[in-house]
Amino acid sequence: PAVLIPRPETEILVEQALAALAQCNLETDQRTSTNATHTRLRLLDLGTGSGAIALALARARPDAEVIGADISTEALKIAAANAATLGVEITWRTSSWFATLSGPFDLIVSNPPYIAADDPHLADLTFEPLVALAGGADGLDAFRAIITDAPRYLRQGAPLAFEHGYDQAEAVADLLRSRGFEDIETHRDLAGIHRVTLGRWRGSEAY
Description:
By secondary structure, this protein is an alpha/beta fold. The protein has a single domain, classed as 3-Layer(aba) Sandwich (Rossmann fold). The protein is built from five helices and seven strands, in the order αβαβαββαβαββ. It has helices at about 10-25, 50-60, 75-85, 140-150, 170-180; strands at about 40-45, 65-70, 90-95, 105-110, 160-165, 180-190, 195-200. A seven-stranded mixed beta sheet has the order 3-2-1-4-5-7-6, sandwiched between helices. Helix 2 links the parallel strand 1 (about 40-45) and strand 2. Helix 1 (about 10-25) packs parallel to helix 2 (about 50-60) and helix 4 (about 140-150) packs parallel to helix 5 (about 170-180).
């Protein structure tokens, strides 16, 4: 297929991202008059694939505008069809990470390609698109790209949340920390594996 088949552990990403959003000071009823022109929450699913994460966000937060972005037009066709089937309104954008997007966002979530190029399991996953799986030599290329640029698209205090490989939690946390993200958390999936890592951006580049 043209998209990655959603895994059960992706539910943990959605749950933790929504929890982080609820805990921050960006809830609609807590907005100050200084940003009254942006009263609606904007949530971004970066590398949306089938749209599963964007759909879950939209159903959990019907008060928000949800944007699903992907470099693959074929993936976006599938995502749009899934949204239509469920009757969920989502804005779809063709984009290589942030290339065609405009902030600010109150939450950015991503389940990017994270399998290392030399991982022997990569060859076994022939039924899924390589672009949705392979993450460069160490599996972290997409994380580096997203973490580098994300601050320019996040509101002050907004979370950036990732799903990652079973052995990548420390590396992803280090990337977030070195870029200046704060309140970094890692969460286990149902199998007890560290699968989701997130941080908040409070730096000067934020909206």
